[in-house]
Amino acid sequence: MSERTEPLLHLALRVEQDIFLVRQRGREVAAAVGLEHQDQVRIATALSEVARELLRGVDGADVTFAVDRDATSGRTRLHVDLSPVRPLPGGRYEPQSGAVARLVDSLQVITVEGDTVVRMSRRVPDHAEELTPERAGKLRDELAERAPGSALDELAAQNAQLIAALDEVRSQRDELAVLNSELAETNRGVMALYNQLTEELEETNRGVVALYAELDEKSAQLRAASESKSRFLANVSHELRAPVTAIIGLGRLLADSASDPLTGEQARQVGLIRSSAGDLLALVNELLDLAKAESGRIEPDWSEVDLRAVFGQLRGTLRALATRPEVELVVEEPPAPATVRSDEVLLAQVLRNLLHNGLKFTERGEVRLRAERRDEAWLLSVTDTGVGIPPELHERIFEEFYQVPGTTRVGGTGLGLPYARRLVTLLGGTLELTSEPGRGSTFTVILPVGGV
Question: Which residues form the Histidine kinase domain (predicted)?
Fold first, then answer.
């Protein structure tokens, strides 16, 4: 059930000039109620496409902008109703471009007070300012007083939006190129696939509607590419490991005291070779672990796990990593009875990953591991006093190869957190993040006591 407010704005669509006006005012209303910039462009573009088709097909429509709030979910939506001046053929409306419907949350033909209406809607973000009756009245007055721009102004605005969208695509293309460069030595097949996707991106963008539709399609292709990458890495694991392992072995052999003595410079270069090969092997192992998790090849070995034993092992093995005197590693003793049905190896791997991550990004203070029993679940949390993570990046850090930018950024692949979340999901739990800049971060693994 929805709570409908008084409409914010009414417009008449009768001539071609009105299409520009409808698009302009649509973007203004979307901005006024709190939609983000990208969604403002999406709904304005969809509105102009539908308006053009209704003008050509049924001589125009009356356009109404309104906001309603779902009383059950508490979500607010912006609705745009287009009431045709003549009946729709067959009482139905099918947009000529299938991409239009993907620009909004819903696009449908409904009946409102006996009239047939084409309605499109877009959800207002939860963080937007609440649209109280007083604020709605103020916005209604501001929109009524605001003078519409000319068609030339609107075309200029559309061009600016298209340029911004092209810049975004170009930026994404550049990021993909960097990723392909990093994987060149270990995964030429994946690099070629991403290059192909980059070339395909350059051939899209034939207008605002086509641009955003193509971006949606590329997201699906990237997911398919990720699956192909996982299958590829899983099938060639021996081929990837063997040359790196050989380099490490040969480096160890050269540095062995039983071999011919090396000069100081030679010893330094051999050390660099061994260090680089070790980093490369760690990258290969992380890629292979992630590929196995994505392909479903990891099967948990379920048993009753004693959290005290797991915490004790982590306390001993990770203490050596806390090399900064300003950072203290604290592993609290879990409250008894400290047992959970899980896979001990996979669970320890998840916690080790989170602790290692905390130690890397904490310059002073502490990294603390603690366990709490709550109802029928265990909450295993890793808290650090590092730089923290902005709210808008809380989901991005779980994307493959993504790392939070900043002055404290350290080496890594950006695969640890995505792999940890997949393992937690495999164990029947969830991995949650609480963090804000300057106040550190807390990663919490929530596991059912009895397992899956």
Answer: 235-451
Handedness of CA 142, 144, 145, 150 (dihedral sign): positive
Contact criterion met (CB below 8 Å) for 359 and 329: yes
pLDDT of residue 407: 43
**DSSP notation for 207-236:** SHHHHHHHHHHHHHHHHHHHHHHHHHHHHT
**Interacting residues of 389 by C-beta distance below 8 A, sequence separation 6+:** 397, 404, 433, 435, 436, 437, 441
Distance CA 200, CA 175 (A): 15
pLDDT tens readout for residues 182-233: 666 555 554 555 566 556 655 554 455 666 666 777 777 776 766 676 666 6
End-to-end CA distance of the chain: give it in Å, rounded: 36
Residues 13, 48 contacting (CB under 8 angstroms): no
Contact 25/143 with Cβ under 8 angstroms?
yes
For the stretch 20-79, pLDDT in tens is: 888 988 999 999 999 998 899 899 988 989 999 999 989 999 999 999 887 777 788 999
* Per-residue model confidence as pLDDT tens digits over 295-352: 556 778 888 999 999 998 888 887 766 667 788 888 999 988 888 899 898 899 899 8
CA distances from 422 to 55, 293, 389, 426 (A): 50, 7, 21, 6
Amino acid at 84: P
What is the C-alpha separation between 158 and 196, in angstroms, rounded? Answer: 29
- With a CB cutoff of 8 Å and minimum separation 6, the contacts of 377 are 446, 447, 448, 449
Q: Calculate helix-pair angle for 37-58, 208-235, nearest 10 degrees.
A: 130
User: Quick one: which of 446, 425, 329, 314 has its CA closest to 381?
Assistant: 446
Q: Within a domain: residue 2? A: no
Q: What is the pTM of this model?
A: 0.42
Could you tell me the pLDDT band of residue 449, with boundaries at 50, 70 and 90?
A: confident
Looking at the structure, do residues 84 and 24 belong to the same domain, yes or no? yes
**Cis, bond preceding 84 (omega within 30 deg of 0):** no
Would 157 be classed as within a structural domain? yes
- CATH for 91: 3.30.565.10
The domain of 119 spans 7-148
- Whether residue 308 is contained in a domain is answered as yes
Kindly give the pairing relationship between strand 327-331 and strand 365-374: parallel
1 lies in a domain? Answer: no
Contact 65, 36 (CB under 8 A): no
What type of residue is 68?
Answer: D
- The β-bridge partners of 112 are 115
